[in-house]
Design a protein that fits this description.
17 helices, three-stranded mixed β-sheet, five-stranded parallel β-sheet, alpha/beta, 55% helix, Rossmann fold, 3 domains, 11 strands
Length: 396
Amino acid sequence: MAKIFIEDRQEDTRVPFLRGILIRSLQDAGLPFNDAYELATKIRNNLGDTELITTQELRQEVIGLLKADSRQDIISRYGKQKIPFGTQIEQRDGHVVPFSRVEYHRCLENIGLTSEDAMNIVTTVHKHLVGRRIETMTSRRLSALTYRYLRQSDKLGSAVAQRWLVWHDYVNSGRPLIYLIGGTAGCGKSTIATMLASRLDIVRTQSTDMLREVMRMMMPEQLVPVLHTSSFTAWTALPGKPEAVQDVPETLLINGYRSQADLLAVAIDAVIQRTLREQASLIVEGVHIHPAFIEKLERNYDAIVIPVMLGVLKRKQLQRRISGRGSDVPQRRANRYLKHFDEIWRLQSYLLSEADRANINIVVNSNRDKVFREIMLITIEALAKDFNNTPQAVFA
């Protein structure tokens, strides 16, 4: 279908016909979403190859269909509305998309803003676009406008504006991000990895548990017994271990874990190297993300590696998280984890200590949104180390 423009003769402007905006207008007038969607679709189909329609003509089309459905109450409320104004954003590749407050809000959260602070900037920028009746704007100009309003904000200021500058420069650089998220059982690695992937549009994620399952198929238990245990019971497969152990010695617990983690390091490195060759971003999460492995990673590539060690610092909170796994993921039996909770807790202490020794960022997982903000601040801090551009250069 041809692109249709709506002409507002009083305002002397033209904007594209957007079915989504019409649907929202009908919903604001009290029409349920499904009915609003159906009516907006009929309008779009009725217009066919029409290239230009005035706001008044469009309004009459809508009212005509509402009358046919005997929606007099909706007609009264709809008739009092103004046709919403929408700005089109021209991307770097020439693709044009409507300005989305939801997507824009998400971009602002990516620099570590709270939802409330992000919404305040969204509202300010949206008022700027609507108040000046800006029909089209390049993505570069929108980013520059955002930078300006962040700098002018009494609450946010130049430091936050600088974070936006760094993030905008990264997004347009094409460089991949590699997140390595470690932590013991129950600390929320999978949940945080899924949230990061969704918010940053990273399509490649890998759990070390899944890699371990693949390796188990290739290496039978008789050959590599330590691979066929949990990370916190791997000590039971070590050669020469004591037959009966009441309280597992710290050294034995750590040696078992390290033996399994060292085996997984080969597979983890292979996944990372494949992703780097394809210049893609990646999230790897799992208990086998050990600080020693991170330290050995080669850094002679054009990727930004962000290692994070998650932790839950209260015993009862970690126990509750593990108990919850029984209902959320039935196949991961919570009772087995709780039976070995002491080993899990001690293993976490070891991982956090090693991360601290290796200067790897430790993030306490008490709230998902807070964890996301903290990881994004860590990310931007890493990106800022190689950043030395001016706003004029970034938005040129």
